[in-house]
Amino acid sequence: MSTDATPPEPPRSAASLLPAWLRQDAPLVGAIVIGIALFGFLSGIREPKATVRLIPTPAANPGPIPVAVTYSELSDAKLRPNATWQQSLSQLKFDRPGIFDAVVRTDEMKLVALADRAKNRAYDGAPPTIPHPVEAQSAASCLVCHGEGLKVGDRLA
Predict the structure, then answer these.
(1) 40: which of 10, 26, 68, 76 is 20 to 30 A away, CA to CA?
(2) Could you give the CA distance from residue 156 to residue 134 in angstroms, rounded to a whole number?
(3) How far apart are CA 37 and CA 33, in angstroms?
């Protein structure tokens, strides 16, 4: 037998598996983690600050205030934005030009048309705004006037 036999390794413990620096500083790291957790918990259960509610100042001149109506009178009440709009279809009738009538266009007419077009657009290339009150924006309500082309004042719908 040989005399070079090395003694068997002692069994390892869980503490010997950790690096030395971690074994030394483990209580400190644990205390820091517990302290942060305790601070977070106490901050979370703290009562929030009372909200400050500002008292609104009334407007200088609120204008005419409409009288409240009952629910049964609501459909007849003039509360809509276009409630005061008056129209008459008989005033909108005019003689339409024929299909094959000659169309006269001049440079002056073009400039006037472009200036008129720019009046109801937010910027060049923007879609037009509707230049009259509208109750419902559906295709059927638009086609009543714009389908055949009615004349309103000096404009053709």
Answers:
(1) 26
(2) 17
(3) 6
Q: What is the pLDDT of residues 17-47, one digit of tens each?
A: 777 777 788 889 899 999 999 999 998 898 8
Region label for 149, one of left (φ > 0), alpha (ψ between -120 and 50) or beta (otherwise): left
Binned at pLDDT 50, 70 and 90, residue 125 comes out as confident
Give the pLDDT score at 36.
96
- The b-or-e profile of 119-146 (16+ CB within 10 A means b, else e) is eeeeeeeeeeeeeeeeeeeeeeeeeebe
Q: How many CB atoms lie within 10 A of CB 35?
A: 10
Q: Which tokens go with 152?
A: 């309103």
Which pTM was predicted? 0.28
Distance CA 29, CA 18 (A): 14
In 3-state terms, the chain is what percent helix, strand and coil (to 5)? Answer: 35, 5, 60
